[in-house]
Design goal:
Chain A: InterPro entries: Metal_resp_DNA-bind_regulator (IPR052509), Tscrpt_reg_PadR_N (IPR005149), WH-like_DNA-bd_sf (IPR036388), WH_DNA-bd_sf (IPR036390). The complex is a heterodimer. By secondary structure, chain A is of the alpha+beta class. Helices cover about 60% and strands about 15% of the residues of chain A. Chain B folds into 3 domains: about 70 residues, no CATH class; about 290 residues, no CATH class; about 150 residues, no CATH class. The chains are: A alpha+beta, B mainly alpha.
Chain lengths: ~110, ~525
């Protein structure tokens, strides 16, 4: 099994799962999706995007120039979606296990 | 100035900001700037716009520095290769440091008979410092505080670099530094480990124990094969340059097979992991044979180092174009190119490594052309002890100017042919020796210095392997303070003994002074 996605990579893939986005839109989407927990730095964003692109998890999807500024769009690949799903499934099974045991813990406390 | 700022439009200010950001891009390598520079600037300006900011945030340059330098590092070895090499080298570093500590620095079974002195507390040398730093690094990695581990390893590099100069500066009475080859091995391994983040999901501790065992086996092998002038193993792990060269060549060949099988990551990681061994090998040449006109180190190290660089770079491409990540689309043209590059690199590495190892084996390391201090010491302070040295009349241990230590064993033989009373000469000599050894006056440092000073132009010749007599000593261009001191000790002892015989009214011709010296850590 591959190494789990890092924190930044997880949120970038999550942001792109909502649709193709340019750099700053990814940053904003990651912040929104994480309820303000994550604030990606632009330098980190492009370092991680480059790695994700080499791994085939994201793809560049056109550029446009607005007010003399380059906006490069990225989109999730099928592999990227698969990878995000696998990671999410893993997280979900962890959450399920913890919740179920915590429920048991509360019940036991209640009985005592 | 304020007025200008007030009149400047937002667009003007953003242009200024863009200029600042573009300046920061210089941290990145050029290909990265070309590929992502504009997109990064665009994102940064979008963000500044969105937050009504017209200047860089304080300290923001640090993000550029960190990311840019990492991008530069990625060009040499991508992150996953560095991480894999860091994993290998952290476990290897700890394992080898542990074994070195036990068998070299501590050696609880050693009674110091070979002339070594416990100069660093209960230890022979400063090895425990390095071992402790490696262990701190391993523990930091295991508990997820790798930044502490990085600092520990950088400190160990600093210690390795500073040990020798510090020792020269402080001139402690004994030799506490480690073998320069071991120091090079440790420092190089630490530097490469610092560049990555070890994977703690691999069984690091078990690997470290494995490495320690391997090093112990190597040490036992060394005990059986390479013996120095004191009869103890020499240059732990790196004692035999030819064998080390073969090890490096073998590792390169294995890496090449990995690369051919398209396991680019293990290939590149293995190559990076071999670098410390190659560096230790290089240190062997520099530390012990650098006066040698045949540049053996160039012959051996060049193909090895070239091979490593070529293969790391090409494997980088192979890794970059997918490595072992399954199933995603990789541009076929790109894959072909990296395949070609590996195809070119593999023969170079195999040929280079083998040629290097062959050269190393073929060269007669023991017999360089010019003056070789290693050869000098080998011929003057090596080999099994002669019979008399097992029952010497005196055994004295002293420190050389550069910190090494020597033991001189002296025997007095009665050569008088006359009747019993003539033996007085030998008895006097023995008594003088015993007395001088007991109160330490025989090898008084000041006295020796004076003896050297009285005769500053003392020059000698040494016949090298090729039968050429080489002049050495002060003023010849072949000057070695340890050799000067070493010879002065013998000469001073001899003259003291003979003078005492003369003072007692006996004939110096009736005694024979015989001595043998064994040294360790001498300047070569």
């Amino acid at each position: 099994m591959a190494q789990p996605l890092g924190e930044s990579a997880f949120w970038i893939l999550t942001a792109l799962a909502a649709g193709r986005r340019h750099g700053y839109a990814i940053v904003q989407e990651a912040t929104t999706a994480s309820d303000g927990e994550v604030r990606l730095k632009a330098t980190t964003l492009y370092a991680v995007l480059e790695r994700l692109e080499l791994d085939g998890l994201v793809q560049q999807d056109g550029e446009e120039v607005v007010d003399g500024r380059t906006r490069r769009y990225y989109r999730l690949t099928d592999d990227g979606a698969g990878r995000l799903r696998a990671d999410t499934d893993l997280l979900e099974s962890k959450v399920r296990a913890a919740r179920s045991n915590l429920a048991g813990f509360r019940a036991a406390k209640g009985l005592a | 100035m304020t007025a200008v700022l007030e009149r400047a439009t937002d667009a003007d200010l953003l242009t200024l900001l863009e200029r600042d950001y573009r300046r920061q891009l210089r941290w990145y390598p050029k290909p990265w700037r070309t590929a992502h520079g504009d997109a990064l600037i665009g994102t940064l300006l979008d963000e500044a716009d969105d937050t009504d900011r017209f200047t860089m945030e304080p300290g923001e340059w640090r993000h550029f520095a960190a990311a840019g330098l990492e991008a530069r590092l990625d060009r040499f070895a991508p992150r996953r290769v560095r991480d894999a090499a860091a994993t290998v080298l952290l476990s290897a570093g700890v394992g080898i440091a542990l074994t070195t500590f036990v068998v070299e620095s501590w050696a609880p079974w050693s009674t110091g008979e070979d002339g070594r002195i416990r100069a660093f507390g209960p230890f022979f040398d400063a090895g425990p410092v390095l071992t402790a730093l490696w262990i701190v690094a391993l523990l930091s990695a295991l508990v997820g505080r790798w930044s502490i581990g990085r600092v520990a390893l950088l400190v160990s590099v600093l210690a390795a670099v500073l040990l020798h100069p510090l020792e020269a500066l402080l001139a402690p009475p004994q030799f506490v530094s480690l073998d320069p080859r071991v120091l090079t091995l440790s420092a190089t391994a630490a530097l490469i480990t610092v560049l990555g983040t070890p994977r703690t999901r691999t069984p690091l501790v078990a690997a470290a124990v494995g490495w320690a065992g391997l090093a112990a086996v190597a040490h036992a092998f060394e005990l059986l094969t390479a013996i120095d002038s004191t009869g103890s193993p020499t240059g732990f792990l790196l004692g035999d340059p030819a064998r080390t060269s073969w090890t490096v060549a073998l590792a390169l060949a294995v890496a090449a097979v990995f690369a051919l099988a398209r396991f680019a990551l293990p290939a590149a990681a293995l190559l990076l992991s071999v670098v410390p061994l190659a560096a230790g090998l290089e240190a062997t040449f520099i530390a012990f044979d650098w006066a040698e006109p045949i540049a053996g180190e160039v012959l051996v190290a060049l193909p090895v180092v070239l091979g490593v660089i070529v293969l790391v770079v090409t494997s980088h491409r192979a890794t970059a174009s997918g490595g072992r990540v399954r199933g995603h689309a990789v541009a076929p043209e790109r894959r072909r190119r990296s395949g070609r590059a590996v195809g070119v690199a593999v023969p170079i590495v195999i040929l280079g490594g083998t040629a290097g190892a062959l050269t190393a084996s073929g060269l007669d390391w023991t017999h360089p052309v010019g003056m070789s201090w290693s050869d000098y010491w080998r011929t003057t302070a090596t080999g099994p002890l002669p019979d008399f040295a097992h029952h010497p009349d005196a055994t004295l241990t002293y420190a050389l100017p550069h910190g090494g230590s020597c033991t001189i064993r002296v025997a007095i033989t009665d050569t008088s042919s006359g009747p019993r009373p003539d033996r007085a000469a030998a008895d006097t000599a023995r008594a003088a020796l015993a007395e001088g050894a007991a109160d330490g006056t025989l090898l008084d440092r000041e006295r020796l210095r004076a003896a050297i000073k009285d005769n500053p132009s003392r020059q000698n010749t040494w016949r090298n392997f090729w039968g050429v007599d080489i002049r050495y000593g002060a003023g010849t261009g072949n000057y070695n303070p340890d050799v000067e001191y070493f010879e002065a000790v013998d000469a001073t002892l001899r003259s003291e003994v003979l003078q005492s015989v003369e003072r007692a009214g006996a004939s110096p011709e009736d005694v024979d002074y015989t001595s043998v010296q064994r040294c360790r850590g001498e300047q070569r």
